[in-house]
Amino acid sequence: MSETVRGVISRSKDADVELVDIVIPDPGAHDVVVRIQACGVCHTDLAYKEGGIGDGYPFLLGHEAAGIVESVGEAVSHVVVGDFVVLNWRAVCGECRACKRGQPQYCFATFNASVPMTLTDGTVLSPALGIGAFADKTLVHEGQCTTVDPTADPAAVSLLGCGVMAGLGAAVNTGELKRGESVAVIGCGGVGMAAIAGAHLAGATTIIAIDIDDAKLEQARHFGATHVLNSRTLGAGEGEDQPLVAAVRELTGGFGTDVVVDAVGRPETYVQAFYMRDLAGRVVLVGVPTGEMRLDLPLPDVFGRGGSLKSAWYGDCLPERDFPLYTDLYQQGRFPLGDFVSERIGLGDVEAAFARMKAGQVLRSVVLV
């Protein structure tokens, strides 16, 4: 039987979010109703609110979530009622060309719930990244649920659902960072901080954090940075002749780093990333650019420097492999997942949390339901 619960929606572009009643329908055959315990406030949710991800208003926001399976569809076999799960937006299909060639992290046909959630007047909601978890409960496909250690803190492990996984996966999975290698991370927000923590976990010996905020750079040391650089203090430059590039090379014997993670996603930071790596080094773009951005690089430099230029989608993660792994490492005290939780708030506090996020005052606000 359908039920009415609370949910946070964005009704129109740039309007303040609203806490309203929403309707959770009966689950379809492969659908699952999850009672949300915690959900992180992610930049992607802000992008939905501000019109940066389509115009399918009203959006049911929230996607970085953990909770308890409350009811399941008749054909569900992946989870059972009572399971503690972290939600993901890459429920792989197993049938598309990416899955069939053994690269399910690039699945082109991921699953979502088969029936829509609505407002009480019947208006269909667009759930953020197919999840919509700023709510008492949400409806997802069974493949969007990954079971993890039920004794873990929901506020901490919920962050594996997006931002933390995107950052650490960019370094470890996409960047293929190896023990003893060097890495530079541009941008020390939540995603960049997770890349730094992932690099530390992977055994990188030189980890250079780059930002324009000294407070964030100091925090980066806590997550494993061995060196910090304030790019604003160093000043501007062109192409390869930038003070920031020179500073990174000075810290790496004159060569540049093996891997650079661009967690900002702007043309100027990408150019910096391109030139501050060693010959045959790897650049990983995980910061999400906007539609009007364009990149200008000399093609001979692209050829001459070699290496690889990659984009990290969801940190190239496989939720069924990675979520339990990093939950266990967190539980063992080997990965500082809980340190990404800056504050714990209620469903009615999301709009204020967006303001704090835009001001750079938090790594993650986490809604406790």
From TrEMBL:
InterPro entries referenced in this protein's UniProt entry, alphabetically: ADH-like_C (IPR013149), ADH-like_N (IPR013154), ADH_Zn_CS (IPR002328), ER (IPR020843), GroES-like_sf (IPR011032), MycoS_dep_FDH (IPR017816), NAD(P)-bd_dom_sf (IPR036291)
The Enoyl reductase (ER) domain, residue ranges? 13-367
Q: Which cofactor does it need?
A: Zn(2+)
Question: Which keywords does UniProt give here?
Answer: Metal-binding, Oxidoreductase, Zinc
State the Gene3D superfamilies in the record: Medium-chain alcohol dehydrogenases, catalytic domain, NAD(P)-binding Rossmann-like Domain
SUPFAM superfamilies assigned to the protein according to its UniProt record, in alphabetical order:
GroES-like, NAD(P)-binding Rossmann-fold domains
In alphabetical order, the GO MF annotations are: oxidoreductase activity; zinc ion binding
Q: Which NCBIfam families match?
A: mycoS_dep_FDH
- Provide the family line: Belongs to the zinc-containing alcohol dehydrogenase family.
Task: State the protein's name.
Answer: S-(Hydroxymethyl)mycothiol dehydrogenase
